[in-house]
Amino acid sequence: MSNPLVEEIVARALPLIHVEREAEQLDTQEAYEAFRARHAELNRQVINQLRACGWMRDDATIEDMREIYYAVLRHPALEGSASDRAVAGRLLNEAWKGLHGWAG
What we know:
Layout: H1 4-20, H2 29-38, H3 40-52, H4 62-73, H5 82-96
Helix pairs in contact: 1-3, 1-4, 1-5, 3-5
């Protein structure tokens, strides 16, 4: 059974995950820095959306967050690519850093 919260998080993250696939083809640091600059606004939007997801209760624990984090990483939309899972993990770490003790 799918978790609506996990589905929401994945849906919000997928646009940036798909864009990040392009970075795998870049072969210089300069090209990567230009790529990141081009997509900085999308990155900011996705991070803000992940922070604003309505799931984070005031009484959420670090264990609740870990459960969601790993459920996102096991989502079928990400299971075919280690790179996609890495991007999803990075996005959640950045979005949740400092929330309820999340170290990121």
